[in-house]
Amino acid sequence: MRRKTRSFCFPSCRPPAGRRAALPAALLASALLLLSACGGGKDESLRVGAALYTQDDTFISAMAQDLEGLVREAESGTGEKITLFIADGKSSQSTQMDQVDRFLARGCDVLFVNLVDRTAAAVIADKAEAEGVPLVFFNRQPVAEDIQRWDRIYYVGADARESGELQGKLVLDAWRADREALDRSGDGVLQYVMLEGEPGHQDSLLRTEYSIKAVTDGGVEVEKLANETANWNRAQAAARTAQWLEEFGDGIEVIFSNNDDMALGAIDALASTPRDRWPLIVGVDATAPALEAVAAGQLYGTVHNDGRGQAQAMMDLALALWTGEDPAQAVDLKEGHYVWLPYRPVTLENLDEFLED
Ligand code: BGC
Which of 54, 156, 237, 338 sits at a 20 to 30 Å CA gap from 307? Predict the structure, then answer.
C-alpha cells in the first residue's frame, strides 16, 4: 500500500474546496514537501463523511471497520490528522439525505456514500457539486448518468457479473468433479433454489443471472425449484430455506445465495434438523463467519468480495482529492470515474489464503 509510507502534510491555509483541484500538481507537491520538511504547522485535518445504507449489514460494517483501520494507519504513517465521520442510514433514504447535509455543513472535504436507494444518487451528487465536495459512491452503484453529472464523482466497487460467473463456476466444477454426489435424483438435471439479495440492487440482479448462466453455459441443465428475496439477511434466509425444505425436502441439490449472510441462514435452517445429506451451498463475500463455514464443510464455496481493497481505494481517492493529486495516479481509474476490485473464488482448497486477511 503506497500510502503507508507516504508523507502527507496538509496546507494550513488551503483554498476553498471547489478550487483545490485547480492547484497545479507540481506546485502543490512542493508546498507539501516544504511543509513536511518544516514539521507541518497545519491546523486542519482531512474530514471524510461516510454514509452507510445500514450498519446492520455484515459486509458493510466490516467495510466501515476497514475504513477506520485505514484512517489510523494513514494517520500514523503521515502524522496527519484525518477525521472520519460514519453515519448509519438505517435503511432510510431520507435519514441518509439528512446525514449528507450534515456532513456538508460540517465542512467535510470528501464524502463516501453507500446509497440506501440507488435512484437517490442524482440529488446527492448535485448537493456535493454545489459545495465543491468530491463524492465517492461505493457498493451500491448509481446509474452511469448520475456518476457522470460531475467530474469529481467516483464509484468504487466490484463487478457483480463477475461474482455471479465465479459462483456458477464453483458449482459447475463441483458437478464435473463428482456429478453423482451433486445430482442426487440422478436425472441429469441440477435442481436449485436461489436466495436473492435486495430487489433492485445490482449485485442481486447480476449474481442471480450470471451464476445460473455459468452453469448452463457449461452444458449443465438446471431446474429452478424456487427463488425469493431474503434482503441480504441471515434470519430471512433461514426462514425461506426452512419453507423450501418442507416443500422440496431432499429434492434441492444446490442452494445459490447472493451473499454469505443468506448462505449462513440456509445453513442455520439445514442444521436445525438432523439430516444425512446437505445440498451444496454457495455464497458471495468471504466474510469471517462464512470462511469458518467453509472450513467446517457446511459452505461449499464463496466468492471473495474485496471490501478492504474497496476501502483502501476510497481512502487513496480521498487523500489524492484532498492534496490535489491526480486521482488517476492514486488508483486504477477507469473511464475517469470507476475503480473496480476483482472477485476471487474460495473453497476449502485455497481457504488459507483468505484466513490470513
Ligand atoms: C454484498 C452483500 C451486502 C450488499 C449491501 C453486496 O455487495 O455482497 O453482502 O449486503 O452488498 O449493499
Answer: 237
